[in-house]
Amino acid sequence: MDSEDVESGVEDDFQTQHGGRKYRPVVAHDRAVLEMSSIDPGSSSDPAAYQSNPKKVKVVAPENMHSNASEGGIPANGGVNGSEREHKLELFGFDSLVNILGLKSMTAEQVAAPSSPRDGEDGSIAYERARVNDVKLGTMMGVFVPCLQNILGIIYYIRFTWIVGMAGIGESLLLVAFCGLCTFLTSISLSAIATNGAMKGGGPYYLIGRALGPEVGVSIGLCFFLGNAVAGALYVLGAVETFLKAVPAAGIFRETVTKVNGTMISEPIESPSSHDLQIYGIVVTVILCFIVFGGVKMINRVAPAFLIPVLFSLFCIFIGVFAARKNNPTTGITGLSLESFKDNWSSDYQFTNDAGVPDPEGKTYWNFNALVGLFFPAVTGIMAGSNRSASLKDTQRSIPVGTLAATLTTTALYLISVLFFGALATRDKLLTDRLLTATIAWPFPAIVYIGIILSTLGAALQSLTGAPRLLAAIANDDILPVLNYFRAADGHEPHIATLFTAFICICCVVIGNLDLITPTVTMFFLLCYSGVNLSCFLLDLLDAPSWRPRWKFHHWSLSLLGASLCVVIMFLISWSFTVVSLALASLIYYYVSIKGKAGDWGDGFKSAYFQLALRSLRSLGANQVHPKNWYPIPLIFCRPWGKLPENVPCHPKLADFANCMKKKGRGMSIFVSILDGDYHERAEDAKAACKQLGTYIDYKNCEGVAEIVVAPSMFEGFRGIVQTMGLGNLKPNIVVMRYPEIWRRENLTEIPATFVGIINDCIVANKAVVIVKGLDEWPNEYQRQYGTIDLYWIVRDGGLMLLLSQLLLTKESFESCKIQVFCIAEEDSDAEELKTDVKKFLYDLRMQAEVIVVSMRSWDAQAEGGSQQDESLEAFTAAQRRIASYLTEMKSGAEGEGNVLMADGKPVVVNEQQVEKFLFTTLKLNSTILRYSRMAAVVLVSLPPPPVNHPAYFYMEYMDLLVENVPRLLMVRGYRRDVVTLFT
């Protein structure tokens, strides 16, 4: 933030009501900031010496410190102002005054959060200079008046008296209280969420999206956009119908005359032609669209002018109610009469025609549920204040006070109107006079006509203004690429979104029937209100540390009740409309989850997942997981053992192999890499490497997390990882790494020592080990394999090899393969009995595999060495020669060190006969694999542990001989527990 922004701050922008005091920002020449002077080093530990010199605390002006603010710290050298810099709080590494001034960016200045949760986007928050608004609105003009204007509308003037006549006074009071309670509880939830942090454009979409996630936010936000667009058509039709009622001569087509059957009123009812409604409605919508193109400033200036006629017309209506008498020349108006009150107390639900007039032969039957759908739009509009959050002086105070005041005021007005209208006229008059409010208005009906037209046009203008901005806010978040056409730069009008909204509004106007549109509007608004309530319910129930709303009068039970009322009202109105609206929201949610850009908005669901994970982790405890519930949690060691491109942090096939260890994608992998060096020096490199590795894992569609560890050496880094990685029973249980096929040509000492040390650390830490040889030839998900998956079962491994082979079969690339189990047995064992036992064991495990028993006996070098005639003999001879040469070098080096053989920095004991035996054993096993499994898709063999006191170089020679000429091999070592079980 520039210093000029701080110095030019206006006091009103920073006033915050708290405990009766108003806080103001620190500005230039402010002498309220104390600066501590330096204390003599000799007396720093003596409190008395400090207290005896009070002059060392002085007052300074802020302008002396702006130079340090731009430098971001305190220079090491004193410079010109070095004496003053010594007085700063250097221990904390910053200037205290600069940080006080920096509070402006967190209080009054708007925070420019990332416009969308794009992949790979940096999580840092960028601060930008807030635009200076010409007008800052208070609670009255910023929230109360817009909410009042949106709530008081067409339904009150031309439908409310009819509702009282149809439902009666009693059920009308219940209807108003029921709908009012729903919006009141929603207002409480809205107040809590809106006071929990700064709000950006988008109104309820922004609140719901940040609370329930992008998918839910976009789905409900688009439905709320459709509701606002359809509501615009509702208001336009109401204005046109009122105009044609007031001026019948303006009708182009012939009016519809409806005869009244079964009522005491003899004159017929004349209704405007539907074609007139369509034509005039389209014209009015186009005119309003041009006004919207003029900009929001003009709309804000004329908005209060629309409300004044509304309030004046309400005043005239109530004057007319008290002035009406029984001798009123209009038939059916009795004045305030107790007899009329008693007659109209109970309901009189019946059939009506298309004009809403009672008719025994009518097509529409009205009941309480249908009236809820007709009346509920009369209580909507509570979001008008939150949509203006950027123009409010004090968002934290204005939104809850203004919204709740408007909700309570209109609900009280409706309740009083029910009592007055029910005692004013007969039921027939209430049911047949669609504009009874104009009939009774004092001194003449034209005032009410003008009020209705201006109020509906003002509400329509607000809908055509708010809906495009809502759509533009959704598009600007860049969640759905298909909405990019509706994006609008900051400070610019969303013209394309406005045209699209006008198109939807015109399509609804063409329908022409007001009663068909109101249920649609009701569903979309109820869906939005339920989203607000669920957001507050989730946030309040989870009670994360970031949940600190200033509005304290809320509870999760109230939000849950509000959400339940919204759902109940939806089904009361129409279960078919409810299913359609929920299906539409679900389709949008599904589309966003597939096509939308992933990201994290810190929503409540992520908090719920976090708490659920913690609770699940605690419930697992420290006990071992039962074999039935065992899942592989592989620790993928990303050491490439070779060269990779700079932009590839992990071997491309290692992620493919990690996916093969999961059943239907369930499970988690931990990808770990180690950076050599000092942590303080390479901490930033580790962060960048971790981000790069995480991005690469997502690119490979592997469910896993990336971890980067900085350590003096790879050996020490891995030893720390294998001890500390994971929590409780969610620690990794399998270490997966690539076989270092390049060890001989790269480094004869470092790679063997590191490789053997990693295997020994895994054995000590009780981790299973899987080493992949031939990783370059490992198939991806699109390369289908045929043949067999061969297991060479030598030692008991808890069933890990069997389980891995079954997991491989669940992948498309290996699903055409069959499993063969080769049991390596001693020569003198009973092969048939072993085969029978293994078959029974596999049957009990629900695994299908062919069992083959191969007999081997301990090899004697002198007896069997000369008879080995297979293709592995050449590799065996070369290994013998290299080991002999290495042993000679060790012995020559030991002569100068007291005849102690040293390898890998430690003394070793070499039994040459045992070395030969190990070589012959691996030679025989390699020959067997080549004989039976040359065409296998993949071979699994037990991993022999590194022999004690043998040099790491010898073990690598054993392994090289074992994997010789086998293209794709998995060396598996289990750990001290079973991973499969016979029992259900």
Task: Present the secondary structure layout.
Elements: H1 3-7, H2 11-14, E1 17-18, E2 21-22, E3 34-36, H3 47-51, E4 57-59, H4 66-71, H5 82-85, H6 96-102, H7 104-107, E5 111-112, E6 126-127, H8 139-151, H9 154-158, H10 160-194, H11 204-212, H12 214-246, E7 256-258, E8 269-271, H13 274-293, H14 296-323, H15 338-343, E9 351-352, E10 364-365, H16 368-375, H17 395-422, H18 427-432, H19 436-440, H20 446-476, H21 495-511, H22 514-542, H23 556-573, H24 575-595, H25 604-620, E11 634-637, H26 652-660, E12 669-676, H27 679-699, E13 704-711, H28 714-724, E14 734-738, H29 743-746, H30 750-764, E15 768-773, E16 788-793, H31 800-809, E17 818-826, H32 831-844, E18 850-856, H33 861-864, H34 873-894, E19 902-903, E20 906-907, H35 912-932, E21 938-942, H36 952-963, E22 969-973
Parallel strand pairs: 11-12, 11-14, 12-13, 14-15, 16-17, 16-21, 17-18, 21-22
Antiparallel strand pairs: 1-2, 3-4, 5-6, 7-8, 9-10, 15-22, 19-20
Short summary of the structure?
The chain is an alpha/beta fold. The strands form 7 sheets. Strands 13-12-11-14-15-22-21-16-17-18 form a 10-stranded mixed sheet, with helices on both faces. Strands 1-2 form a two-stranded antiparallel ribbon. It starts with a helix and ends in an 11-residue tail after the last strand.
